[in-house]
Amino acid sequence: MKAAAFQYERPGTSAEACALLTVGAGLSKPMAGGQSLGPMLNLRLAQPAAVIDLTALAGLGEVRDEGDTMYFGANVTHAAIEDSRVSDPSRGLMPFVAANIAYRAVRNRGTLGGSLAHADPAADWVSTMRLLDAVYVIEGPRGRREVASGDFMQAAFTTVLDADDLLLGVRIAKCSASAKFGYVKFCRKVGEFAEAIGAVLLDPARCVRRAVIGATAGAPHLVQDIAGVLRGSQASIDAEVRAAGCDEPYEFQIHSVALKRAVAQALA
Amino acid sequence: MRNLNLTVNGHSISAAVEPRTHLADFLREHEGLTGTHLGCEHGVCGACTIELDGAPARSCIQFAVRCDGAQVRTIEGFDDDAVMQHLRTAFSAEHALQCGFCTPGMLITARDIVTRLPHLVNDADETRIRRELAGNLCRCTGYQGIVRAIQRVLRERAEMLRAA
User: Fold this and answer.
1) 8 Å CB contact of A190 and B131
2) Which of A8, A15, A171, A193 gives A135 a disulfide partner, CB atoms 3.0 to 4.6 angstroms apart?
3) pTM of the full predicted structure?
């Protein structure tokens, strides 16, 4: 339960960090809060040649009001969002989600960007950002680019990030005052990773009606037949849960119930 | 090896560490602070919980090398802390420990609960207290004593505040 030896670097700028990642030729891992990578190193599931510590990176902890959107730097912690130490564009959804991630001691260190880049399907932020339709801001050796929420996560633990890319942050559209959400996750124990996630966002003022099925075998599934699901049509819910890849009876059942309860919460 | 400067329980420390050495091993092996316990070593059991820059953190999944410039407080650093003294008395009175392995982490989490969430003084708040405690595993007590001890401190602190 001790990590294998690794080289340690603590760059001060994102350009330096990207350069260090390039040198490692895929054998370097960026580390933000380290609350997922730390355990993986200890268990030797990950054995990178070098760990690139992002703690000292200027600007990565920044939260910026951009008018219609808000920008969250990748190093913003779950606890900062939970405690509303940073502004909330989501009318309570993000603090609610943050408060139910793992445990407080983990939330104090774990970061929004780290969780997203790690892309564990059972983690909360990948589903939440899909629901909020966040835009991912990425820096790589060829410069900066922005990626839509549907294109970021490609499969379990697999994102559009190349080995020498860094996730700088996410841009989230502000919800209107009338926005309502539902967010339901099932865990075997408080703080464990989710077995199923159902999430719904209704923001009539912005003509937004979205629902996500998360904690699947891959990327979160954005519900296509939103009208049917909001109407409570069992056939629509069944079809969406199957489209999310949850065919096995237990998975099918809990994902279906999570989605239905999230719909009920959002409509309440 | 990398050079490391940090503050542990109020003392400035300089040391050379291997990057792979986690903070708990550093505290136990280099500093002799064996009050920080190691259970699972992957961030699940909570026995290694310490205070890092004023907030609880898992020292087993934090690498020492990353703590350059940080303020670390282990269970040994709370000897004279009034809230911790109060919690220790309550843990003793309510039989909140048996073997003691989880106790250092429990106390640091408990102190965070009573200081961060002082409003949890009603019977109905037991569920929330249990949720907040979910990241610290105890295999002896069944948690009842621990929850009672935390409730006792929350109530007594609220009374002290009203009286003041």
Assistant:
1) yes
2) A171
3) 0.97
